Amino acid sequence: MSLPDNSRASRVLSVERLSIDISHEHETQRVVDDLSFQLHAGQTLCIAGESGSGKSLSSLAIMGLLPKVARLPSGAILYQDRDLTELSDRQMSRLRGRDIAMIFQEPMTSLNPLMSVGQQLEETIRRHKLDEGSGAKRRAWEILDAVRVPHVEKRLKQYPHELSGGMRQRVMIAMAMVCRPKVLIADEPTTALDVTIQAQILELMRELQQAFDTALLMITHDMGVVAEMADDVVVMNQGVVEEQASARELFLQPKSPYTRKLLAAVPRLGAAVTLPSRAQAARVLEVSDLRVRFPIRRQSPFAPATEVCAVEGVSFELGAGETLGLVGESGCGKSTTGKALMNMLTYSGSVKLDGRELSGLQGKALKAVRRDIQMIFQDPFSALNPRKTVGELIAEPLLVHGLANAAQRRQRVEELLLQVDLPAAAALRYPHQFSGGQRQRICIARALALEPRVIIADEPVSALDVSVQAQVLELMKSLQDRMGLSYLFISHDMAVVEQVCHRVAVMYCGQIVEIGSCQQVLHNPQHAYTQRLLSAVPMPDIDHKRDFKALLQVDEVPDPIKPRGHRLPDIHYAEPQAGHFVALSSA
Amino acid sequence: MTLLMALLKRKSVALSLLFILIVVVAAVFAPWLAPYDPTEQFFDGLTIEGAPLPPNSDFYFGTDLLGRDLLSRIIYGARTSLIIGVVSNGIAVIIGTLVGVTAGFVRGWTGSLLMRFTDLMMSFPALLLAIALAAILRPSLWIVALVIAMVNWVQIARVIYSETISIAAKDFVAVERTIGASSLRILFSHLLPHLLPTILVWATLGISTTVLLEATLSFLGVGVQPPMPSWGNIIFESQTYFTSALWLVLFPGVAIIALSLSFNLVGDALRDELDPTLKGRL
């Protein structure tokens, strides 16, 4: 008797020469072409690629959840010697959840908002006939405990909206793992989460995979996540497999030019040449003691009046031609700070632009100031009115301020389009005819129309693919060099911040906990939160896998809801180096 | 003009426009087009037993229960139905849009006040309200049109209100604020164009419901007063004879359906043509 072939024995699922067609009206488009891969027990395969690469459709094909317009002209998906593409809907739905489970990107929309966590888990358990009654309850408890959810008893009774994003994703994972599936498909499981939460979820998935010997198929666009998680990688582009290799090989010796391009475009923390600080530059924007509070409607007339302290005592300066990065996790108040500077919210404190006080301005005076400070939004799809042509959109600021007649406006639009590397003919087209990166260029052109001194960029590249991201960042930099613009660059992505910023401020719970040059803050972090944040960033570097275990326990974030008029103690800063300020903990 | 050409390219829309044109012409030139006086009761308009005549060479659409010429009544009825359908529905859409947009855009105190008033109006049974109003004011064609408008604006205001809120929350509205655009500019050049599809759909869908509501009011005696004909009251006068004199219900019924369908098709087509993101996809 020959020895069992090891690689064969552990193979759980294999996709053989799979192609997917999408037919729209009379046209048929091939969106996935000739894709083959194998999943092995206890191993992770990552499918990496940018948007439109067909990576998500491939995973949906395995689940038998392709949209109606999709067809499989060729190929097979073999699981336990059965071809999944030939199974009926009923047979497939018996496999789904029990043998092959899936986690989606957005945990809020994948959980039923009307059922408690416990009910949803028990339903899954009962549906796959794992257990009944009290047994199902016990299983639900066990699996939540296994995904390290604290206070399991309480969580079982809670509804999805009462949980944080990270907790929801843990519940999703618990639901997927409760039947101990052989294959777990995770479609961008951490994309919607903050870095520290992402690190927790990734670590959790690693541990569960070890414990349950699951084959993990991960779909992601983030090469950092790939490096942290993958044993093998498939790189896809426009439905075609560009490269298929072990993770080590892929990162150390990428063969296909596309992979090389993709890897080169990924911003790596610690790899960028830190930009020299511009401490000598004239100050354009001075913010001191900025506070933003949102009142909460009282539950009853007798309840004490409360408010959310979104931003508390934020102070910083921005020099001419300087980029200040404002980083932090969701809910830390970084976007609120940006909106306050744009006078889109009421705030207290002082904001000075070129020595002029902005706080409390209204009407004409405010309108005049708006010429000098402009904003770029995160989502270029919703920031452009779909019913206007690009030319109208870019000319809008000029029109509003009555700065030019029709002919001048047309000429200026042309200039602005050229400045952001778009053809002048783009003016006549509508936003939906452009890609995400091009739309963000249009947004930048519009922000530049009034020749502002300061641009507040709120996550300007977060919605874009990495290769496009790099181009937009390059454009922003070259515009800064040419026009001496100052940017307040709000971002959650440390690596991007390192690339474009001269200085960085780290926000946590509405306060700046650390501010200084890129070198100081990102390479020599002093505050515990900054250190934690930086240790959670996944690195696209196969030889330096990060150990996220330390991050796995959940920290309680201080409650931002305070009685109305409550004044938080002032923050005191230490200055370990010139220009590097670190908040001292109030204790 | 290019818009009209684009609309006429679609066969169904061209047909609808033609039908609307016919109804409008019929309404305007009724005295010249109608073969008889719509209120005249013909001696030979009934059989010996006193039953209405089916369509024949004298009366193309037959006669009604009192021996009046149905074709003439339908031609004159087009006046009533068109006035009710277009005018009262138009008023309803205008009031509804104004209230909805104001409440959704201004929000705050004014917004809640407007919407609570809308809810109050909504909680009245529409028919009861119409009857009450029509009973207080002496019914005439224009009063009936006004009464129907008063009842119908409520749903439109609700829909426009929620739509305004969702559009006002979009980033491009925030961008306008950061540029320094005034509220009026945002309202007219960035909000209203997005509300247009909804407004158009209501403006066209509403026509059929208003025509029917007018018929109901006529039937209850608070609508257009007989002997003045309207498509609605022709149906209601003769509905009990539906099985024995089908033509009495069939012709005005077809007229109502065809008119509201035509308006619907034209409205749909207008919405598609005015939306740049849909162009080229068809």
Automatic annotation (TrEMBL), chain A:
<dbReference type="InterPro" id="IPR013563">
    <property type="entry name" value="Oligopep_ABC_C"/>
</dbReference>
<dbReference type="GO" id="GO:0005524">
    <property type="term" value="F:ATP binding"/>
</dbReference>
<protein>
    <recommendedName>
        <fullName>ABC-type dipeptide transporter</fullName>
        <ecNumber>7.4.2.9</ecNumber>
    </recommendedName>
</protein>
<dbReference type="InterPro" id="IPR027417">
    <property type="entry name" value="P-loop_NTPase"/>
</dbReference>
<dbReference type="Pfam" id="PF08352">
    <property type="entry name" value="oligo_HPY"/>
</dbReference>
<comment type="similarity">
    <text>Belongs to the ABC transporter superfamily.</text>
</comment>
<dbReference type="InterPro" id="IPR003439">
    <property type="entry name" value="ABC_transporter-like_ATP-bd"/>
</dbReference>
<dbReference type="GO" id="GO:0016887">
    <property type="term" value="F:ATP hydrolysis activity"/>
</dbReference>
<dbReference type="InterPro" id="IPR017871">
    <property type="entry name" value="ABC_transporter-like_CS"/>
</dbReference>
<dbReference type="GO" id="GO:0055085">
    <property type="term" value="P:transmembrane transport"/>
</dbReference>
<keyword id="KW-1003">Cell membrane</keyword>
<dbReference type="InterPro" id="IPR050388">
    <property type="entry name" value="ABC_Ni/Peptide_Import"/>
</dbReference>
<keyword id="KW-0547">Nucleotide-binding</keyword>
<dbReference type="GO" id="GO:0015833">
    <property type="term" value="P:peptide transport"/>
</dbReference>
<keyword id="KW-0067">ATP-binding</keyword>
<dbReference type="GO" id="GO:0005886">
    <property type="term" value="C:plasma membrane"/>
</dbReference>
<keyword id="KW-0472">Membrane</keyword>
<keyword id="KW-0813">Transport</keyword>
<feature type="domain" description="ABC transporter">
    <location>
        <begin position="296"/>
        <end position="534"/>
    </location>
</feature>
<dbReference type="Pfam" id="PF00005">
    <property type="entry name" value="ABC_tran"/>
</dbReference>
<feature type="domain" description="ABC transporter">
    <location>
        <begin position="10"/>
        <end position="263"/>
    </location>
</feature>
<dbReference type="InterPro" id="IPR003593">
    <property type="entry name" value="AAA+_ATPase"/>
</dbReference>
TrEMBL record, chain B:
<protein>
    <submittedName>
        <fullName>ABC transporter permease</fullName>
    </submittedName>
</protein>
<feature type="transmembrane region" description="Helical">
    <location>
        <begin position="244"/>
        <end position="266"/>
    </location>
</feature>
<keyword id="KW-0472">Membrane</keyword>
<feature type="transmembrane region" description="Helical">
    <location>
        <begin position="12"/>
        <end position="34"/>
    </location>
</feature>
<keyword id="KW-0812">Transmembrane</keyword>
<keyword id="KW-1133">Transmembrane helix</keyword>
<dbReference type="Pfam" id="PF12911">
    <property type="entry name" value="OppC_N"/>
</dbReference>
<feature type="transmembrane region" description="Helical">
    <location>
        <begin position="199"/>
        <end position="224"/>
    </location>
</feature>
<feature type="domain" description="ABC transmembrane type-1">
    <location>
        <begin position="78"/>
        <end position="267"/>
    </location>
</feature>
<keyword id="KW-1003">Cell membrane</keyword>
<feature type="transmembrane region" description="Helical">
    <location>
        <begin position="117"/>
        <end position="136"/>
    </location>
</feature>
<dbReference type="Pfam" id="PF00528">
    <property type="entry name" value="BPD_transp_1"/>
</dbReference>
<feature type="transmembrane region" description="Helical">
    <location>
        <begin position="142"/>
        <end position="161"/>
    </location>
</feature>
<comment type="similarity">
    <text>Belongs to the binding-protein-dependent transport system permease family.</text>
</comment>
<dbReference type="InterPro" id="IPR000515">
    <property type="entry name" value="MetI-like"/>
</dbReference>
<keyword id="KW-0813">Transport</keyword>
<dbReference type="GO" id="GO:0005886">
    <property type="term" value="C:plasma membrane"/>
</dbReference>
<dbReference type="InterPro" id="IPR050366">
    <property type="entry name" value="BP-dependent_transpt_permease"/>
</dbReference>
<dbReference type="InterPro" id="IPR025966">
    <property type="entry name" value="OppC_N"/>
</dbReference>
<feature type="transmembrane region" description="Helical">
    <location>
        <begin position="82"/>
        <end position="105"/>
    </location>
</feature>
<dbReference type="InterPro" id="IPR035906">
    <property type="entry name" value="MetI-like_sf"/>
</dbReference>
<dbReference type="GO" id="GO:0055085">
    <property type="term" value="P:transmembrane transport"/>
</dbReference>
